[in-house]
Design brief:
- By secondary structure, this protein is of the alpha/beta class.
- It folds into 2 domains: about 90 residues, Tetrapyrrole methylase, N-terminal domain (Cobalt-precorrin-4 Transmethylase, domain 1, 3-Layer(aba) Sandwich); about 100 residues, Methyltransferase, Cobalt-precorrin-4 Transmethylase, Domain 2 (2-Layer Sandwich).
- Helices cover about 25% and strands about 25% of the residues.
- The chain has 5 helices and 10 strands, in the order βαβαβββαβαβαβββ.
- The chain has a 5-stranded parallel sheet, with helices on one face.
- The longest helix has 13 residues.
- The protein is elongated.
Length: about 190
């Protein structure tokens, strides 16, 4: 099995990923992942949209699975097989904000990990780290901002929406008047940067 990162937006595929996608005979992926790789999928390749992510481990050993962003950043890298990296939203955010990745702590708050994500974010900020927070649309951003404000530490919040897409938007504000997500495809960079 090959798990290929297709990047966080258009044009963010690596040459290795393009080569492997163009060779594939059967590709599985979310609608978004397939869309990002579409121009490199060979004619005649069977393309199957993934509807049930719980059964991915049951795919055949020769399967090629597309993962948005990078498979090892809240992606499909947990699956057995060769992982081919993609350009992640973390890399793009760090580049756009001129923040060395070595200063960043990644917090994933998807699905049931909302409270844990809030606690981890607060602890990392207290330690002086810059947090890159991946959250889903149900994550209570306002609650996080309220808790962070009580720390009385100097910090900014960068709201990163649609990274890598033409409609990309990065809004940086102080924690006292933090930016609110308008899109469902967003991440936050939080800390003293």
């Amino acid at each position: 099995m090959k798990i290929i990162g297709v990047g966080c937006g258009p044009g963010m595929l690596t040459e290795e990923a393009i080569r492997e996608i163009s060779r594939a005979t059967t590709i599985y992926g979310s609608h978004r992942a397939i869309e990002l790789a579409q121009s490199h999928i060979s004619f005649g390749c069977a393309v199957k949209t993934i509807d049930d992510f719980k059964n991915l481990k049951k795919l055949p050993p020769d399967a090629v699975i597309l993962s948005t962003g990078d498979p090892m950043l809240a992606g499909l890298g947990y699956l057995a097989g060769e992982v081919i990296p993609g350009i992640s939203s973390l890399q793009v955010a760090a580049a756009r904000l001129h923040i060395p990745i070595s200063r960043v702590s990644v917090v994933v708050a998807h699905g049931k990990g909302h409270e844990k994500g809030m606690q981890e974010t607060i602890e990392e900020v207290k330690q002086g780290k810059i947090v890159f927070l991946l959250a889903d649309p149900k994550f209570n951003v306002q609650e996080l901002y309220t808790r962070l404000t009580t720390l009385s530490l100097p910090m900014k919040v960068a709201l990163c929406e649609n990274l890598g897409y033409p409609e990309e938007r990065i809004l940086i504000q102080e924690i006292q008047s933090p930016p609110r997500p308008a899109e469902s495809l967003y991440s936050l960079v939080i800390g003293n940067f």
